[in-house]
Amino acid sequence: MKGQEWYQADDIAEEYEEKRFSRGGRLIDRREKQAVLDAIGPVEDTDVLEIACGTGRFTVMLAERGADVVGLDISGPMLKQGRQKAQAAGVSDHLELMRGDAGRLPFPDDHFDAVIAMRFFHLADTPASFLSEMRRVSREVVFFDTFNRFSTRSIYNWALPMGSRLYSRWEVNRLLDDVGLQLVNGEHDFVLPYGFYRQIPNSTASTFRKIDTTLGSLPFGDRLASVSYWACEV
Questions:
Q1: Which of 16, 69, 143, 192 could pair with 116 in a Cys bridge, judged by C-beta atoms 3.0 to 4.6 Å apart?
Q2: For the segment 62-118, what is each residue's pLDDT rounded down to a tens digit?
Q3: What is the full DSSP assignment across the chain?
Q4: CATH code (residue 205)
Q5: How many distinct structural domains can be found in the chain?
């Protein structure tokens, strides 16, 4: 896993959300959460697993909406932040956070209604093995995102501290075929990369977002998208 030591550092965990989801990053947070909700459908009384759950952005959100959620992550400091967030939100009874390896999920086959992974596959050295495990433990939905190879993401990829794996659509389709997942919906968004939005105020980000969505709506505009959300069924 690329950047494993960087990701597990105490100071990274403490500053993770403040650096990525304040300022213009709030817009990204809203878009990602809506993508997760759209993929899962009705959330209440649903059993959900999030791998690489980090500080619990999605696990807490889903628990607040009535899902029973398990979040798994390799980083103890990230999980600590997630537990504090769950307690503050009053959803600890609907949420379990545990440390573990996403490549060897400690659950039986068909254990969850949905399995999700956000901000994970750009770090994965062996994406097929992780995706195969996600499929194994899901009864219905598998949802994940990728950063795209032929996009503005590649311009600043070299500056990321942990590196970043970029995917072509052909590569994602091949991965889905290899593990036996059926693609239900693929959404492609953010012509301007995430890193750009994080550097500007939230009010300014809204203006650029309008330009971004206009570009994305043009013929072949989605081919310029820097991120894709993949909703699949088992």
A1: 143
A2: 999 999 999 999 989 899 999 999 999 999 999 999 999 999 999 999 999 999 999
A3: -TTHHHHH-HHHHHHHHHHHHSTTHHHHHHHHHHHHHHHH---TT-EEEEES-TTTHHHHHHHHTT-EEEEEES-HHHHHHHHHHHHHHT-GGGEEEEE--TTS-SS-TT-EEEEEESS-TTS-SSHHHHHHHHHHHEEEEEEEEEEBSSSTHHHHGGGSTT----B-HHHHHHHHHHHTPEEEEEEEE-SS-HHHHHTS-HHHHHHHHHHHHHHHHSTTGGGG-SEEEEEEE-
A4: 3.40.50.150
A5: 1
